[in-house]
Amino acid sequence: MAIVKMPFCFLALFCLLLQLFSIFHIGNAELEMNYYRESCPRAEEIIRQQVETLYYKHGNTAVSWLRNLFHDCIVKSCDASLLLETARGVESEQKSTRSFGMRNFKYVKTIKDELEKECPSTVSCADIVALSARDGIVMLKGPKIDMIKTGRRDSRGSYLRDVEALVPNHNDSLSSVLSNFNSIGIDVEATVALLGAHSVGRVHCVNLVHRLYPTIDPTLDPKYALYLKKRCPTPNPNPKEVLYSRNDPETPMVVDNMYYKNIMAHKGLLVIDNELATDPRTAPFVEKMAADNGYFHEQFSRAIRLLSETNPLTGDQGEIRKDCRYVN
User: Fold this and answer.
1) pLDDT over threshold 80, residue 99
2) CB atoms within 10 A of CB 257
3) What is the mean pLDDT of the chain?
4) Is 115:128 a contact under the CB 8 Å cutoff?
5) Contact 307, 148 (CB under 8 A)
6) Residue 165 has pLDDT above 70, yes or no
């Protein structure tokens, strides 16, 4: 009788272990290249087409996609928590002062709607954030980043209370910024490259006037400071008015190394721009990137890949939102 029971016990134990392994494996899946090759083969093509179409209608959307990636991934996880609006018990991260000036969220829905037509409830909003940033960078004449993995899932909540602590402020010190990025696995060289995203977009005068009034910051180039005062003519700008200066007046819509050339010439808009060019931890990388656009693009690509893979939800974690603005 014992001879009959032993194989059955071993078989039952084997089946149980197989089930547990399956659960563990699914719950802890990893990102991979071309994740949607079977479930939605045209997913990446659809996102790229929509990014291009939106760029030609609204050029600043490309900058928004890049900023979305940064603000989403540095707060806990690359899980599209940034996109959630205040509803159903969720408080939107977009309410934070750190999200000041962010826009074009409505066009994420444009991309998602096209994907839902093709493959309902399949492509995550988190992957839209990552892939739209990749394709937006190309529209901004930056590097083509081929190694963006997919398979992220969407959060079921937001992290509004954590945004202030995790998203760097325009007045934060370089040490604080380096520490924040290091905490998510991004080294100093990659951080210097990521800050090269300041080569596109703009800074509202609200975040700039403290360097101009009541006296001009002595680390600013004097002639450039006078130009900035024309852009920001009052020490108390109205946040609701469109008062800003381009991060890079030379090539304002191109992801290139002009940013590094500018900050070496004391023409950075933010305090951290000046610190980046002068601090011994970062200055050598700034000098190298200013001298070699190819090197900057190489490091920028590496940094974007690292950022996009920050603590993603995968497998059976989170969900696939039907509408990126709301949990299911």
Assistant:
1) yes
2) 24
3) 91
4) yes
5) no
6) yes
Q: Which residue has the tokens 């190489």?
A: 298
Does residue 263 contact residue 273 with C-beta atoms inside 8 Å? yes
* DSSP secondary structure letter of residue 313: B
Q: Are 106 and 36 in contact (CB under 8 A)?
A: no
End-to-end CA distance of the chain: 54
| Residue whose C-alpha is closest to residue 84's, from 129, 131, 34, 32 | 129
CA distance 164 to 27: 30
Q: Which residue numbers are catalytic?
A: 71
What is the Rg, in whole angstroms, of the alpha carbon atoms belonging to the chain? 23
pTM of the model: 0.90
Structure-derived torsion over alpha carbons of residues 215, 216, 217, 221, reported in degrees to the nearest 10:
-160
Q: What is the pLDDT of residue 1?
A: 46
Q: Which string of DSSP letters, residue by residue, matches 55-76? A: HHH-TTHHHHHHHHHHHHHTTT
Residue 51 burial (10 A CB sphere; 0-12, 13-18, 19+): buried
